TrEMBL record:
It comes from the Bacteria. InterPro entries: Bact_HTH_transcr_reg, Chorismate_lyase_/UTRA_dom_sf, Tscrpt_reg_HTH_GntR, UTRA, WH-like_DNA-bd_sf, WH_DNA-bd_sf. Signal peptide: none annotated. Coiled coil: none annotated. Pfam families: GntR, UTRA. One of its GO terms (biological process) is negative regulation of DNA-templated transcription. The keyword Transcription applies. Residues 1-22 are annotated as: Disordered. Keywords: DNA-binding, Transcription, Transcription regulation. This is HTH gntR-type domain-containing protein.
Length: 276
């Protein structure tokens, strides 16, 4: 798998322009606008750290509350991310996963011009969990388990836990490190993937996944659960991707025609009761 070079050090931030304290635009909005300009102008490198809360209060001559409001505005706009115990950083490239076409997680990053680093953490035979299809296991009830971290710019963005056929025992650690999941299945195990069912949900990171992704246990994650099938309907793999949500989104295009239901039930009655 390809690797990406480390990001460059943050550039020097220009001096703050004077705030217009008698303007109708709030102080926090003026600060947010200046920082947004600095980010978009490249004064901070991608994934670069922003000045601390204290540094910004001194720079702009405002209270911590005002600085926090400005940072919250940048966070809401997707321009920055907060990392527990480390500070606030410039958000990286917004990444998308197109659900309309069948594509692996790694290949979807490559298609967007990103060259992620990967780190294989676990690749071993384990007892098949009950929620994993029995066709992945051998007669002794074992399947193969893979756990991998994906990084962009040196920062973890996702972790995958994948259950593979027991035949993956013939795949070496080196081969598993160098191939994405679909590469292991198609190139090394000679399986032909015909379709996949994908489910998306949100959940807290928890202690273990949070540590791997640099998040607190209560931080929200996107979870993409995928089950892939061969042309004969046999399950080929069952994967769960735990994704940091700040720079990742899923895209699905829906085609018409658009069916429209009858009028919303109870809406008129509720309005009448409010006017009574």
């Amino acid at each position: 798998m390809k690797r990406q070079s480390r990001p460059k050090a943050p550039r020097t931030t220009p001096a703050a322009a004077p705030l217009q304290r008698d303007s109708a635009t709030s102080l926090y909005r003026q600060i947010a606008d200046q920082l947004e300009h600095d980010i978009l102008a490249g004064h901070f490198a991608a994934h670069g750290k922003l000045p601390s809360e204290h540094e910004l209060t001194v720079r702009f001559g405002v209270s911590r509350v005002t600085v926090r409001q400005a940072m919250d505005a940048l966070l809401a706009a997707g321009l920055v991310v907060k990392k527990q115990g480390k500070g606030t950083f410039v958000a990286g490239q917004k990444l998308q996963h197109d659900l309309h076409s069948m594509q692996g997680f790694y290949d979807s990053l490559i298609a967007q011009g990103v060259e992620p680093e990967t780190r294989l953490i676990e690749f071993a035979a384990i007892a098949r969990p009950e929620y994993v299809d029995a066709s992945l296991a051998n007669p002794s009830g074992q399947c193969f388990f893979l756990r991998r971290i994906y990084q962009v710019g040196g920062e973890p963005i996702a972790m995958v836990c994948a259950y593979l056929p027991a035949d993956a025992a013939k795949v070496s650690w080196q081969q598993a490190s160098e191939n994405p999941i679909y590469g292991i299945l198609e190139r090394l195990l000679q399986l032909r993937i015909a379709r996949a069912d994908v489910r998306i949900r949100a959940q807290p990171a928890g202690a273990r996944i949070g540590r791997e992704l640099g998040l607190g246990p209560r931080a929200a994650l996107l979870v993409m659960e995928r089950e892939s099938f061969c042309s004969d309907g046999t399950v080929a793999e069952h994967s769960s991707f735990y994704i940091r949500p700040e720079n990742y989104e899923f895209l699905l295009s829906a085609q018409g025609p658009l069916p429209i239901s009858s009028s919303i039930r109870g809406a008129t009655r509720a309005r009448v009761e409010q006017l009574a």
